[in-house]
User: Fold this.
Amino acid sequence: MKFLAFSLLTAALVVASLAFISPEANKGQVVLTCNVNACDRVDSIYLYEFNGITFKKALTAPTADWQTYQFKIPATTPRFYYVGLDANNMKPIILGTEEQVTLNGSCAQFQGAQMPDSDLNKNYEAVKNTVNLQKNEFGTMLRQLQSADQQGNVDLMNTIIMKMGELDKRRLSYLDSLKNVSPYLGKVAALNTYISYQNHGSGDLSEIEYFAKNYFQFADWNDPDYNYMPWVFEQMKTYAQTMASVGLPEANQKDFLDKLLTQIPENSRTYLLAMGGVINGLQAAKSPLLGNYAKRYVDKYQETEPESAAQVGQLLKLSGSFVSGGDAPDFTMNDRDGKPVKLSDFRGKVVLVDFWASWCGPCRRENPHVVEAYNKYHPKGFDVLGVSLDKTKEPWLAAIEKDGLIWNHVSDLKGWSNDAARLYGVTSIPHTVLVGKDGKIIARNLRGAALDAKLAEIFGQ
Assistant:
């Protein structure tokens, strides 16, 4: 089973701090004072909240001296915010319980700002570092276990499993200690604590079934502190991406995801974050289930979260490019002679959209197989449309000539920013999309023997 690496949203989630204000003057308030340099006439900075899809401005802090910016928010239980200029330049921060917090940094790079007087955020940084180290250690052990299994080294496997059990104990002990010292940070750790199948699974569950049922076993989805915790998004993203990447039938993936979502109060903000994580994870895995959850999101949040629903709606329109049986999104791109070619020009034929590049070794090694398939099935109605991710024309044309690729070729010479590649979510090459006579996607990423088998199924031997 493949466990995906965890990558935290935008940057490390940390808190900002507040300048000195009379406690009596700000009773019931949290004051965040940002002392930042290099702002170059920046009139205002912003405090954002994350809803699982977009960062929404919660407050604006103007300045009189281009250096000091101040926010005042109501005192609450701890809550994650983000402070900065925009979604690409901001600092994650926990606010709500400390009356005064000061952030010192630079407008040029909010991510590196420091918060010297916030114990909550300092402690959070320590917790975040610890849980990430635990995850990395667990991931290393899984890879070692897989390698030992492939080698048939039973003694080494048993040694690794024993070490995994020791890590399980440390993770559980750390979680228990946090619950006593800082209940809020304990809830962060609860979302990030997963103990091994090898030491805690049972014979009636496969490893993926155990993962599906126990990944969030320490989280209480009814706890309101999860309503504003981005870790909900991050961990749901990891969960959904894993479900979509381990070879489970789609019906099983959907069943596990739906059962998990039913545990979360549907009208809570936690559910909103969770849905954003599911959509993001399925998109990363190019899962055919993406359209289902994107539509569910739009239907549920188009009135209460219109901006986010609109973004997911755009994703929904493109989700057919991930789905077998979905409509293949049309595109127009210039051929070698500068003449526009549309994918829809091939309607009535079975066409292989082949994303490649002259500099791509695996692509060039695959080309003889595509040539063979083209020569065999072209008389029966098979065609190929090569989409190059080259940036310069000369090597592209030279590779076409050298490899004997006699079909249609297009490119916008934008490299990885190729419009068609972006439309189809292509992140590696070679990558193929087989489109039927009716313009619907038959399959993705067929190469070699798999492509031959599918074409034989369609056209006969």
Q: What stands out?
A: The radius of gyration is 26 Å.
